[in-house]
Input
Amino acid sequence: EEEEEEEENEKRNEREQDEKKSKEENKQLSVEQLLNIKDTVFSPHPLSVKLSLATNEKESLCLSLEFFFYPMLDLVTVKTNNNPFCYDVVSLVFSDSKKHTDTVKLFDPFVSDTVLFALDKAGFTGSVSASVIGRVFPTTQKIVGLSATDGSDLRSTLTHTLLSLHREVETAQAITAITSVLATKKFPSVDETIEKFPLEAHSHVFDFNVVDVSNDQKYKGAFSFVVGTSKVRVSAVVRIPHRFPKVSADFTLSFLDQKAPKYVRGAHVNLLAMQRECQRIDDIEGKCTTEEILSIQLRRLQMCVDLLVELNDCLQHNKGSKWCKSIYNGREHVLPFTWSAEERVFVAV
Output
């Protein structure tokens, strides 16, 4: 009996040793597999998609995007060409917060719990931003259907994003083109088939400057200048919002000291009336290009100043004007700055 018991103990010990050895071998194999998981997880699909948008030949205003898909992460990343304009546009269009955002961290809801667990076991403590190409945004996940609820949501997201990208590029081109004209102390030209200005232009551009709006998330660009004649001059600051031309450019006007119209009442009220006329784009939005809309707004400002000079002379000599039925309108003495094609005169709106 003692011999039989001793044999059973030996067999039991052998089985335990075999099981222990097997577990060690399996454990070693699991560690090797886990050490390789990082390379597997952070390997993008061999196919990528490139998107290029450009509305002129300037490289600084060209938008080049490349999309990478990471199957193990279920993530789509966006790589941009190396220029500040492209970086700003991608940050604005793809970020839900409309602010500059870095790539999402590893423990973002985009990454599945299974992948997180495997990476944790493999000893990975970094972030996705250090291991993937490009950046990750919520909108990019919607575009490829990773977080879209249905086909219509996917189509609308993709359409909205592409239109937003195109609008950003087109607006940047318009700002560059128009500021280059203003810098020569001239106003941009407008085709008469788009809008005809009845008054002969006498006002000129003075003291043009680009305004820094890098710290203002509301605007994508701004510039200032002085417009007028030797008698009357108006200082103008024009700010271009990110949603332009869906939203009008913002005009802020003021009279220069010693150059305000001496014979016009209600100077502040009429500055506001001129601002309203410049910012009125409901009749041209959707019918003109972005550059044409901004050009028309600036030419309307020039026309308002020319009309102001004309009416100031009329008031000085106590005579009427052929350009309007009545110089003053209402108790606030508002001048007529809106051209009525039907009546062939300027009217107050």
